[in-house]
Amino acid sequence: MSREALILKIVKDNPQIKTRKILEIVPDFTYSIVHNTLTKLVSRGLIDYRTIETKSANNMFYYHREYFVTETNNIELESTNLELLIDKFPPFCESWSDEFKNKWFDNFDQLSQLL
Known about the structure:
Strand content: 5-15%
Shape: elongated
CATH class: Mainly Alpha
Number of helices: 5
Number of strands: 2
Number of domains: 1
Structural class: alpha+beta
CATH topology: Arc Repressor Mutant, subunit A
């Protein structure tokens, strides 16, 4: 699974998630990777965010973003997931064995039902 697909799934499964929490879920990603990926997903319109202001005990204000998938984004997300799935499906090849060709057609039928 690509970084974008993984982070997109995390945001979809965890509404109002913060970058720090994503880093806890995927500890091998750096802050920079998560931030850049979230920025790409926002610019592509797949997720949204809102900025939250928090006041600390020493009267300092901190700002953080909560990321989420809206209903409109959710529809786009499903079509994006289908596109990712289709991209991973291998093109048909005449040189395959008959058994492998039959399996390919069976899997293609299953994929077609998802569309």
